[in-house]
Amino acid sequence: MYLSALRSWKRHLWRVWVRRTIGWFPSAGTGAASGVPETTSEDLDGQSQATVNQRPLGCSVPPPGLPTSLTPAALPQQLLKDFLAGVAPAPPLSWLFLFSAIQLACLLQLDPSLGLMEKIKELLPDWGGQHHQLQGLLAAAVFASCLWGALIFTLHVALRLLLSHHGWLLEPHGAMSSPTKTWLALVRIFSGRQPRLFSFQRALPRQPVPSAQETVRKYLESVRPVLGDDAFDRAVALANDFLRLQAPRLQLYLQLKSWCASNYVSDWWEEFVYLRSRGSLINSTYYMMQDFLYVTPTPLQAARAGNAVHTLLLYRHLLNRQEIAPTLLMGMRPLCSAQYERMFNTTRIPGVEKDYLRHLQDSRHVAVFHRGRFFRVGTHSSNGLLSPRALEQQFQDILDDPSPACPLEEHLAALTAAPRSMWAQVRESVKTHAATALEAVEGAAFFVSLDSEPGGLTREDPAASLDAYAHILLTGRGHDRWFDKSFTLIVFSNGKLGLSVEHSWADCPVSGHLWEFTLATECFQLGYATDGHCKGHPDPTLPQPQRLQWDLPEQNPPIHLSGPEGSRDLVRNIDCHVFPFSHFGKSFIKCCRVSSDSFIQLVLQLAHFRDRGQFCLTYESAMTRLFLEGRTETVRSCTREACQFVRAMDNKKKTDQQCLALFRVAVDKHQALLKAAMSGQGIDRHLFALYIMSRLLHVQAPFLTQVQSQQWLLSTSQIPVQQTHLFDVQNYPDYVSSGGGFGPATDHGYGISYIFMGEDAINFHISSKKSSTETDSHRLGQHIENALLDVASLFQVGQHFKRQFMGLGENSGYRYGIISCKSVDPNIPTSSSNL
Question: What is the pTM of this model?
Answer without folding.
Answer: 0.84
